[in-house]
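Ticket #4471: structure output looks truncated?

Reporter: J.K.
Steps to reproduce: submitted the chain below (102 residues) through the standard prediction queue, then opened the result file.
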Amino acid sequence: MINIVEQYNNYIQQIPQLINETDYKASHFIKLLGLKPPTYYRKLRENAFSIEEVNILTKALFPKEAYLQELKRDLAISDDDFKNGRVIEHSVVMKQLKEKYL
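Returned output as attached by the reporter:
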């Protein structure tokens, strides 16, 4: 457990450098996080981002990995749905769509 905390702390310390190495402007991250510029720069300087903000920044800094993780999670959910019988036949879905939109 201590190792996980140390890895997280190391990652937090790297965030300013990772942000600096991107092609994005600071305004992109300010808008993404919903912060005012002074608050963003203070948090960046002090490494004081909340866990939610770190999640947002991580997804923005590593979009391919974030997409892959989301895709794997969605596939796991769909596999679970299939195994537990939470599925609807194609013909039933098409009938419902036709009734709703036609």
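Triage note (M.O.): checked the attachment and the full token line is present. Residues 1-61 form one domain.
Status: closed, working as intended.
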